[in-house]
Amino acid sequence: xxxxxxxxxxxxxxxxxxxxxxxxxxxxxxxxxxxxxxxxxxxxxxxxxxxxxxxxxxxxxxxxxxxxxxxxxxxxxxxxxxxxxxxxxxxxxxxxxxxxxxxxxxxxxxxxxxxxxxxxxxxxxxxxxxxxxxxxxxxxxxxxxxxxxxxxxxxxxxxxxxxxxxxxxxxxxxxxxxxxxxxxxxxxxxxxxxxxxxxxxxxxxxxxxxxxxxxxxxxxxxxxxxxxxxxxxxxxxxxxxxxxxxxxxxxxxxxxxxxxxxxxxxxxxxxxxxxxxxxxxxxxxxxxxxxxxxxxxxxxxxxxxxxxxxxxxxxxxxxxxxxxxxxx
Length: 328
Hints:
endopeptidase fold (from Nostoc punctiforme); elongated; 328 residues; 6 strands; six-stranded antiparallel β-sheet
């Protein structure tokens, strides 16, 4: 039989052992710190989302600009219609005044007051001309009034659409700013080692390009290596993904759209196995990122915040949703 003091000693030993074991166990997942790989993955996810919102915002700007052009045209049409209406109304007023003054004789009255057959014919000709002029002026006035009404309706509709697009653009800008703030916070959480890896310019060697439009576009894009990525930037000191591609083809004498969405529909489609220098590579199902093929393996692109324009493996950039060839 174990004595009372012995039991107390055993219990104390058990408690102490439990404390040591508890201290040695890992902490709960809720307080675990993310490792470098998880932090980088999260940053890439936030950056991809921000890239999509950036393209959405750019598209909203283009939509608003196009609608503003329609609005300006509608206002111009309205001004011209109102001017024509005013002019024709004055002409109709003059003809009406002439009619009220007795100029619009009937055939019988013309016959009664005519001094000769020739005088009668002259009077009849004047009556017919006046009647034709009056009918023509009235028809033109009616057309002008209808045109003015249509132009007014078109201008009002364009105005309302522009207001909606402006509100939509402001919302997309707010969404983008929020997403950028989250991505920036995540970027700051990365280790200096990871940040330095992201900021590296990569392959800066001289790369030969093919002749022709695609080669000239690629030459421009390669020349921008090392320049920073900035959301919404149009160069020349910084770029986003689609502005770099647009500027590259502009330098080669070809005009393509500003957004990745527009570039995803430019040229003609080619398969992954057909990729060659100058092809536009479109990434993600959202078509929110673009790059330019250097060859069948590598691509040059403006990646995301914290990374310069650089060369990367084509398939490492992200899931490819389409490939477009501008030339050939």
